[in-house]
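Subgroup meeting minutes
Present: P.N., E.W., G.H.
Scribe: E.W.

1. P.N. recapped why we're keeping a running log of single-chain structure predictions: easier to compare across weeks, and new members can see raw inputs and outputs side by side.
2. G.H. added today's entry (487 aa).
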Amino acid sequence: MPKSTVDYPELPKQFRNGSWWSLLGFFGPGAIIACVTIASGETVFASRGGALYGYALLWIFVAGTLCKGLQLYSASRFMTLTSRSPLQSWALLPGPRGWFVWLFVLLTLIWMPFFLSALPKMLGDFSIWVVGFPAPENAEQFARHGLYWGTFYIVAGISMTWFQSYGFLEKAQTAIVVLMLVSMIVAVIVCQPSLLAMFAGLIPQLPESASWVSKKYPDIEQRGPWIEMMVYLGVIGGGAQDYLGYLGTMREKYWGMLGRSHESALDGPLAISESDENIRRGRRWLRAPQIDVGISSIAVLVFTSCFVILGAVILHPRQLVPNGFNLLTEQALFLKVLAGDATEVRFTVDWIYKTGIFFAFFGTIFGAYEIYTRTVHESLIAILPRLHSVTLRTVRFWTLIYLGGGGLLILWFMDKNPVFIITPAALFGNGLLCGLWCYLMIWSDRREVPQRLRMPLLLQFGLVVAGTVLTIGSIIGIVSFVQRYLM
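Output recorded in log:
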């Protein structure tokens, strides 16, 4: 007996008045994912790329942001139209049922504690710099105190996630990110970067390290440009673990078919009505994910570009690279360029930077625990649909145990700097899985979305390009990493 068809819910009043300004109210999950992902990728790796190679790698950061934007939009579009996450769709791939989903989820969950070990370690080292004790010259004591601070941030993040809502910190972090964004734009204008060099940096190229890099930073020279580039491509904008969590937050927005009971889609795709009115309504519902993902991607792109440019203008000529214990301290020069020789102004902007970095990183750590809770929840629904009734609070408890325990183990027993810890996680979770995601969204779209609502050819082409860039680039980076460090 054929399934009865279902219609999209009625459009809310934001759609009916025809004002794009009113549609900005749909910007919600994108704010969370932007706040969670604007941390290490932008403040550390974007400025690191500019410091190492000048403007030469501006293209890789722009490409990474665009690829991730297409990836995220394709998934949010699919979910708005079908009420099903990509993981639920991929469970129907040819072969043993759910084989790819199990593999995807395994590779996603493995790397989550690595991110939530490296980020607290970065913030811990930054905290030592803020308080001024102990001195970096005392390497053993500095490293030990960094572990103490990192442990504190892991415990604090877990505790706040369990006992408090995410709403307040999201608003506070968004305000801090906006403050930093405005400050970075002003700093870029004051620095008067070379427009010609910036445009040249948008041309894909394999950069060469300056002669001083091998002398001052031999560990970076050992990594080589391929690993650096592919890590940059991965960390910008987030990874599979972040985007699955983003899709989990979408279930609370009730956009499009999510406004119907999503439980009806657990056993397979819904039979969506293809009447003219329903197709028209479905297309209009797509404005919600377009606005949400669009604003989020633009924020990440602007923030990233500013840090690359400032790294090229300020750090590169001074031969300073965010590295080791100084992943966040060198960038303090970005705001000090606004102060000139005025001591009071320099002191003020110095603390603006310190405050902004602290809240951006701690907000990311805190937000990541909440986002990853939804990542685990989405994974469980796809692997074992009968677990859809398990409460988010129950999933949160076990997720915090896993992330907290795994993060602490990596923090205390993996004797490597945060860049090394985050490198394989970025190559696999933020690069390779995101590339495969782009390809498979085209398969899911053709299989489950009504023909008249399927992706336009331009979006399909963009996903093929994004998938190719992320997949091939990540494979090259993984091979280079294995050859340099594990063979």
